[in-house]
Amino acid sequence: MDSLASLVAPLHDAIYAVMTPVSDFIWSYILVYLLLGAGVLFTVLTRGMQFRLFGHMARVTFNSRGAGEGVSGFQAFATSLAARVGTGNLAGVAIALWIGGPGAIFWMWITALVGFATSFVESTLAQVYKKRHEDGVYRGGPAYYIERTLGWRWMSLLFAFFLLVAYGLAFNGAQANTIAQGMNQAFGMPNWVTGLILVGVVAVVIYGGLKSIARTAEKIVPIMAIAYLLVALVVLALNITAVPDMLALIVKSAFGYGPAVGGAAGYAIKTAMENGIKRGLFSNEAGMGSAPNAAAQANVKHPAAQGLVQSFGVFVDTLVICSCTAVVILLSGVYEKLMANSPGQDIVGIQLTQDAMADHFGGFGEVFIAVAILLFAFTSIIANFSFATVNIEYMFKRHAKGAVQALRLAVLAMVMIGSVSQLTFVWDFADLSMGLMATTNLIAILILAPIAMRVLKDYERQRREGVKEPRFDPKILKRPDQVDDDVWPSKNS
């Protein structure tokens, strides 16, 4: 075992020598500003759709269960939420708190608030330019709308490759790693045993196709989200007097006053921002280009309707579930003790969340988090496979079936490898691939935003005219010829 480690170490160091500076540059100098800037711009262009249309957004989401053939709007929402709700919500929030301080939670919230509009734009574009597939499930996403509108197949292939690396490999390793850590701490189960079991269960679902994934997500995601919310509400109720101080700590730390300062307020703000935005993006995925792959699968009457549904997913993921994790940790005695006694030490994210829950509920808390992360991360893995499938089919076209078979094997291998690997490398690899993918997609949707605005205006116009279920006519677009007639036929054709 030692000889194997000595052989792998040089490769590990070489990978880090390339990966670290690239990842740091993307996150420190490009993506933080691009992500927030795009979110603010889209919020202005949509006239604050996340505030104006929030109630309608929620109603559309819960009324979108019926789809006839294919995948319903709610199933597409559940699939994208399955990918969003995973390690980012439990382990990722804990890591953000540990590295960036409580202020990271504030910047996570800001990322989500502007992320509503970003998610709407990318998901609406995915709906407009989706394609019909032989299995009855639509295909679409950034790779499709970039090529259809801009004609830049090189950029589409670049995005598809980054997503394949991120969702086929990196993120699945991160999810499996967190499940293994949680099961080990709660039940003493060896990581390799968890890995083998996980591989078997994941295989059953992903070999059933995209409809199987959508049905599984639709059943599991609402139950796990509601259960986690209820437990967090109990924590809030039991510690209600400490809530004002907790909120004050989050806001003060975001601007350089708090446990992450360490004598350098500017550095503390930068650290809180970078970690809050990074983990917020990893969690809610707004702007990353992942959710549009699920959004495109939905069988709906108007693209904007599914854009609103996907925007609501950002609310559920970050403003509800991530906040639940922050509440559980900050209202426990665990975080404060660690900051006082062991500042700067490496920490496994899920263990901090489990320790905090155990502080509130004893053994039940530790077991509850282990089960929660098992469900959260499991559904993320199968949703990740769904996204990767769409993009590998796009890349290989005529050889898509063989490529998907190879992808299934790669995903199962990465689940096993992730279960027994070190957390740090898996998370760092995920950060890099996510950064490259998000940068590519954000550049594209900034160029294509006027199309999404035109679609939103059409949707709102029909609603003002009393139309209960607006229907989309591609003739409202400047280039209706870029839209498939068998997907969106013109009303007058």
UniProtKB/TrEMBL annotation:
Write down any Gene Ontology CC term: plasma membrane
Q: What Pfam families does UniProt report for this protein, alphabetically?
A: Na_Ala_symp
Q: Which domain of life is it from?
A: Bacteria
Name the InterPro entries for this protein: Na/Ala_symport
Q: Where are the transmembrane segments?
A: 26-45, 81-100, 106-129, 150-169, 189-208, 220-240, 246-269, 312-335, 367-388, 409-430, 436-456
Where does this protein have coiled-coil stretches? none
Q: Which Gene3D superfamilies does the entry link to?
A: Amino acid/polyamine transporter I
Subcellular localization, per the record?
Cell inner membrane; Cell membrane
Task: List keywords of the entry alphabetically.
Answer: Cell inner membrane, Cell membrane, Membrane, Symport, Transmembrane, Transmembrane helix, Transport
Segments carrying the region annotation (Disordered) are: 465-493
**Sequence ranges of Basic and acidic residues compositional bias:** 465-482
**Membrane-protein topology:** Multi-pass membrane protein
Q: Which NCBIfam families match?
A: agcS
What PANTHER family is this protein classified in? AGSS FAMILY TRANSPORTER, SODIUM-ALANINE, AMINO-ACID CARRIER PROTEIN ALST
Family designation: Belongs to the alanine or glycine:cation symporter (AGCS) (TC 2.A.25) family.
Q: What is this protein called?
A: Alanine or glycine:cation symporter, AGCS family
Q: Which organism is it from?
A: Chromohalobacter canadensis
Q: Show the taxonomic lineage.
A: Bacteria, Pseudomonadati, Pseudomonadota, Gammaproteobacteria, Oceanospirillales
